[in-house]
Amino acid sequence: MAQVLEQLLVPTPQLKYLLLTGGNSLPEDMAQFRKEGASIIVATPGRLDDIMTKVAELNPKELEVLVLDEADR
Predict the structure, then answer these.
(1) Residue 72 resides in a domain
(2) Taking the alpha carbons of 42, 45, 50, 51 in that order, is the dihedral positive or negative?
């Protein structure tokens, strides 16, 4: 999905995305988010749950759009 999104964002370089998956610690992922920022977050279901329940600075109530894609299941 991130590869497809990367191609879709070519004409709009002002939009950045961040891919968050397991394998990194949550503090490492949040440090990357703070450093680079993102307009779009692509995350695995488990990582998204971690972010939405454990990271106060990313309040899900402030999201404009949330897309959940489980097409592979």
Answers:
(1) no
(2) positive
Report the residue count for the chain: 73
User: How far, in Å, CA of 46 to CA of 70, rounded?
Assistant: 12
Give 19's DSSP letter: E
Is the residue at 24 inside a domain? yes
37 within some domain: yes
CB 47 within 8 A of CB 71: no
Burial of 48 (0-12, 13-18, 19+ CB in 10 A): middle
Q: What is the pLDDT of residues 15-72, one digit of tens each?
A: 888 888 888 888 888 888 889 888 888 888 888 888 888 887 777 677 777 766 665 5
The first and second tokens of residue 57, run together, are: 């600075």
pTM of the model: 0.72
If one counts every other C-beta atom within 10 angstroms of the C-beta of residue 5, the result is 13
